[in-house]
Amino acid sequence: MEEKIKIPKHIAIIMDGNGRWAKLNNKPRVLGHKAGAETLRKIVTHSKKIGVKYLTVYAFSTENWKRSKEEIEALMLLFKLYINSERKTLLKNKIRFVVSGRKEGVSPSLLTLIESLEELTSKDYEMTLNIAFNYGGRAEIIDAFNKANEQGMKITEQNFSNFLYNKIPDPELLIRTSGEFRISNFLLWQLAYSEIYVTDIYWPDFTEKDLDEAIKDYNKRERRFGGRLNVK
Ligand code: FPP
Asked: How much is the pTM?
């Protein structure tokens, strides 16, 4: 009999390779991101279906401001379009929408859209979609530290996560597409014990089946959290 597959409660994804996918398909980079947004739609719906409770995706890093003005504007526009087109689906599928990142630099119109969807989906939900946008892991740690300081709190390993952008359990599994073995300033605190799965597939080509494959691979791992294996 086939063993039952354990679905990670929280999956984090570095959606990499949009640019290379575009190049390979003779398209402008922006169309790579557009195709990436389509992949995100499918992966969110599939994650809900298979019972994932938290999905965090890296959509725009604090380093992405170094990209061309055209590409930055396209990514901002895509995010607005994503929010507008997914509102109904997220509500129907009982998915809470949250964004993790710094607000500085994000346009007031995008911030308004984000805040209204966060509010709209905050009541009746079974899964959380956490979009890391204008996000940096170091920035998050510094912001958390300053928040704790302002509140006069002494930071401990136990209470630190309360000061992060969102109160979400640490991911059991990190997936990175397009073959790079880097964390790229993503969830630096939260990934301490996560299993890492890297696939060569470019994000726009990543399918529901590929997500299942990553979960299957995760099921083969033995998570020890620094402890010793049981030696017989
Ligand atoms: C990395 O690919 C991807 C990004 C910097 C952006 C991720 C954005 C999306 C998937 C678009 C949709 C997201 C939302 C929330 C609307 P890259 O450009 O670094 O690819 P490359 O390394 O091949 O050049």
From this structure: 0.95
